[in-house]
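Protein modeling request. Please complete all fields; requests missing the sequence field cannot be processed.
Requester role: graduate student
Desired output: 3D structure, token encoding
Chains: 1
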Amino acid sequence: MNTEKLEEEINYKFKDVRLLLHALSHSSYANEKRHNGGSNERLEFLGDSVLSIIVSEYLFNTFKGNPEGDLTRLRAALVCEKSLHKFAKEIHLGDYLLLGKGEENTGGRERPSILADAFEALLAAVYLDGGMEAAKNHVMRFMPKDIGNGKKLIFSDFKTVLQEIVQKNPEEKVEYVLIGEEGPDHNKIFIVEVCLNGQVIGKGRGRSKKDAEQLAAKEALELMGYETF
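Delivered output (229 residues):
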């Protein structure tokens, strides 16, 4: 594997390239090869915490007038799987993953969950190899440049973003309810409400239930103060 090309992608040169290889080793590869170093799952665990610290500090320093709730919701949007998948694709991380044959043959290099986890593992490897400053430099390149007043979302998977925001409070529950259908079978429109703890917080209309749910989540995010596009 040409690790030097990935190092160029992330603009970081590893002192211990074994950390980089460990971060790229999916569990399917580690199990198949009986890899002594194991998979990247432990690094993923560490990377999740490092990412949260870096993003929290960035938001805290950037949006000094925003209350804790806003910062929490924005952090959730920035570190959700959808975002990490996008970041991983920016550096073509999937091209460098070490996968077992099963994952390789079933599209593992493009799977959002695998890429998001690998992004966190890679961050942990950078942190262990170069310290917090190196990790911070790596993360900051992915932060949106037009984040505006701290409430602008640039993601299209509104359901995922809403779920990431809400699940920070375990007692809260989001559910989508189909409340109606309009039009003939060949041109049907579905109407969906999204509810938070039983209270309607958004409504969407779409040509499929999935589209209607996305638009309902989008409306809910906008009502919460987020600018979506």
